[in-house]
Design a protein that fits this description.
Blueprint (H helix, E strand, L loop, with lengths): L1 H7 L5 E7 L6 H9 L6 E7 L6 H7 L6 E4 L5 H11 L4 E4 L4 E3 L4 H12 L3 E9 L7 E5 L6 H4 L11 E3 H7 L10 H12 L4 E12 L8 H17 L8 H8 L11
Parallel strand pairs: 1-2, 1-4, 2-3, 6-9
Antiparallel strand pairs: 4-8, 5-9, 6-7, 6-8
Helix pairs in contact: 8-9
């Protein structure tokens, strides 16, 4: 009976999608982070955007750890995520980008348990940004906190790499809006949690470590474009836009540089 109860928690398949482009220096660590998870029912999908460095060579050496791999040109990171979601066969979908890795080897076990215990539609947790050259050094701590719809109107956002969603939710409410180049994840959160009011749970633990960098923070122009797209995300969902949202959302990030995780 005890073994049966353990296996019941592994019946539900979780699909992990890694989107990569010229990620030769980090992709192996990301793959190992997935393969070292203590949860067995994982489908691992890698969507490469036709990398021109040694990424594909690294992937070929890790082929036994990958269930689905495609390398072809795409229309950006969110188009690649959508490709992964479409082919995913898991009940739950998580996205782990090629600069990211799981905090420890039982993250996915804890994620699945929360889905099973609460029957939620999605969940999220906390994230730390780490030094690109030394992943043991924390640069920024994103402590999400419990979800409140009002907080979205005050600039709140959850860390997207910690966001796990049932496949049926994507089937019902749609994929990432590829007309947005840096804020489709924010638009997805507004759509699912604010507009469509799906059920959500918060895991008050660090789930992901992310190396500093990323498309939306790569330059002043990208940050400005992201800020404009954040505003557009409200319009796309026919939601009444908070007057100061353009300023509130970036201001919420400031405290992340001063608080430290209690670990």
């Amino acid at each position: 009976m005890f073994l049966l109860l353990i296996k019941m928690h592994e019946i539900r398949k979780i699909s992990v999608i890694t989107v990569a482009l010229n990620s030769q220096s980090t992709i192996k660590h990301t793959i190992e982070s997935v393969s070292s998870q203590d949860y067995s029912n994982i489908e691992y999908i890698v969507i490469d955007g036709a990398s021109t460095d040694w990424t594909l060579d690294v992937l070929s050496h890790c082929n036994d750890k990958i269930d689905y791999l495609i390398s072809e040109e795409d229309d950006g990171i969110y188009d690649a995520m959508n490709k992964g979601i479409r082919v995913a066969s898991g009940d739950i979908i998580g996205i782990l980008n090629s600069d990211d890795f799981y905090y420890d080897n039982n993250v996915l076990s804890r994620v699945v348990k929360v889905f099973e215990d609460t029957n939620c539609d999605c969940l999220y947790g906390d994230l730390v940004y780490v030094n690109k050259g030394d992943s043991s050094k924390t640069v920024r701590y994103w402590k999400s906190g419990e979800f409140k719809r009002l907080n979205l109107r005050r600039g709140w956002m959850l860390p997207h790499p910690t966001f796990f969603v049932k496949k049926e939710i994507y089937n019902k409410y749609g994929l990432y809006d590829t007309s947005l180049t840096t804020s489709a994840d924010y638009e997805m959160i507004l759509r699912l949690l604010h507009k469509d009011d799906i059920s959500v749970q918060y895991i008050p633990e660090i789930l992901i470590k992310m190396r500093i960098g990323g498309e939306s923070n790569a330059s002043f122009f990208n940050r400005l474009r992201g800020n404009n797209e954040d505003n557009l995300a409200w319009d796309l969902n026919n939601l009444k836009k908070p007057r100061l949202i353009r300023f509130l959302k970036p201001l919420r990030k400031v405290k992340q540089f001063f608080i430290k995780p209690s670990i």
